[in-house]
Design a protein that fits this description.
12 helices; single chain; about 75% helix; mainly alpha; three-stranded mixed sheet; about 300 residues
Amino acid sequence: MMMKKMNATSEGYFVLLGFSNWPHLEVVLFVVVLVFYLMTLTGNLFIIILSYLDSHLHTPMYFFLSNLSFLDLCYTTSFIPPLLINLWGPGKTISYIGCMIQLYFVLALGCTECVLLMVMSYDRYAAVCRPLRYTVLMHPRFCHLLAVACWVSGFTNSALHFFFTFLEPLCGHRQVDHFFCEVPALLRLSCVDTHANELSLMVMSSIFVLIPLILILSSYGAIAWAVLRMQSTTGLQKVFGKCGAHLMVVSLFFIPVMCIYLQPPTGNSQDQGKFIALFYTVVTPSLNPLIYTLRNKDVRGAVKRLMG
């Protein structure tokens, strides 16, 4: 087994096929991906800087939002620059070490985002359903512990999949039918039975996708019940303004992720999977800042204060 593994990686690179089946689309995709990447960089940096500079935004909600923005910056930067190079020129290779690093960080940051979105929903639940105890429930020290737990859990889970995936023998086949190194695409390269890997991927994906999603829906179920009992129109508008944005971000992220990771890799249409992955890895991170800032009175007020 180990000899096969060594033979498979002796040349030290993989070929990322990406969208080479549609060469006429590559230039268009290059422009689209570049535009969305620049939007992601600009929007998320704007949120991070604004949340840091304006003292009125030093709240749990914007603390977690800054974490989400920083996470999206790291997530997209881990694979979009190589993707742009892949789309622009004929060279579609990535080094073996580069592929391992990319796999680890993409999976780690994706898992971290699932847990972070769950924590953000709890913050919204505490703000709406427990307003009198909100400052106690979301104490700054507790918020920092929650943020650390999100990052640690994501990177720990990624380490497990990382080692299981790269211990599989590849039998000399180095063509990855995807635009970045991810677990399902790499498992297709193995010439041995990967059912154990697929099962572990589905189990861990269920833990990091389904459980956070169930808890998020539970939080919003409680919020909806609290909203139905409200008599004040102003209160309703305030709740929808603060919770609607987060619920939209959750939908844009979790629905595509479930389509990719909650079924066996061999059961996916590879071409369909690429475009689904392109949406939640490239488009969604660029939309998050727009969703959170549009019609947001706190952000508009912070911008006005900074501009004097």
